[in-house]
Amino acid sequence: MHTQDPQSTEYPFLRLTRAAAGLIDAAHARTGALVAVPAMLLGIAILSGCASLSAEECLAADWYTIGVEDGSRGQPISRIGAHRKACAEVGVQPDMPRYNEGRAYGLQLFCTRERGYSEGESGRSYSGVCPPHLEPVFMQGYLAGQDRYRTKQEIRRLERELAAVQEEVTEIRTSLDQGYTVDEKGKKNQLNKFERDAMYERLLTLGKEEGRLEGEISALRVTLIGS
Question: What is the extent of the structural domain holding 34?
Answer without folding.
Answer: 7-110
